Amino acid sequence: MNKPSKEDVVIQAKGLQVTFDKHQGLIKDLFSNSQTKVTAVDGIDLTIRNGEIVSLVGESGSGKTTFGKALLHLVIPSAGEITFEDQIITQKEMRKFRQRAQMIFQDPYQSLNPKHMIIDIVAEPLLVHGLLSSEEEKLKKVTEALESAGLKPGEQYLYRYPHELSGGQRQRVVIAAALVLHPHFIVADEPVSMLDVSVRADILNLMVKLRDEKDISYLFITHDLSLAWLISDRIAIMYLGKIMEIGPAELIAGECLHPYTKALVSVMPAPKKRTDRKRMVLTGETPDPSRIPAGCRFHPRCPMAVDRCRTEAPVLREVNPDHLVSCHLV
Ligand code: SF4
Question: What's the CATH superfamily of 9-19+37-325?
Fold first, then answer.
């Protein structure tokens, strides 16, 4: 594997794990001594390099959003370690980390307080971090952030309310509120899934432009492999809390090796998809993180499963430079 040098790495997760107590209903919770544990993220290693867009692709319930939140300490990991800009993130480092690492959520309708004007929404992170000393500074920084997010001229948006904007403009306001702190890393969780198809490409182009101009790296979380292929340098495929395959975007969309990735690629509408690949429709239950199968967790749905898959979990290992796969048959 092309090992990134320390200077190349923006953020790195090692053995990241997130476990929740599963609520079984009020009565059962009150009278039962035992809580069911759900391991939403199960020991993930992931490195994101300078200026890189890495997509995390998976079905709902795969743990991809929980992983993104854990990476930013918005949920507390039960195990593992996160290094950001070459420093292990501890409580002491948290304030600085929260300025440099931001999250964009999928729903711009819910992310923005309808009672607040755009100027106050975008200025809020500056206030929280004590980075404003005057009203002029607030005006200047918010206007700059709005313009960086493509809302030009910024002054025209300052005193408007979210309901006066279109869906695409609201998502740009969400992006401006992340940009105002000059982040080095952003977790973008399904940032275009709630938007009209006509504005999705604009927001994706904006993300790439910001990567190039402002040196921002991204973890792009999506259920849509074709979007991931369009925007990413590398793609990681996640299933029930683990990474099944990770590699360069072109390779994952073309020469992927894991049966789960193959199934996703076979139904992907991207123009560069290999045309000789037959459509593979997965059968069986959709993933339930509270009931992870023994052995390879994908085996109940895998068309290639052999006996060994039912008892022995495969490990994620390098099969080609920068290409890792977790499957006994690869
Ligand atoms: Fe399928 Fe077995 Fe490979 Fe898992 S290890 S993906 S069950 S072939």
Answer: P-loop containing nucleotide triphosphate hydrolases (3.40.50.300)
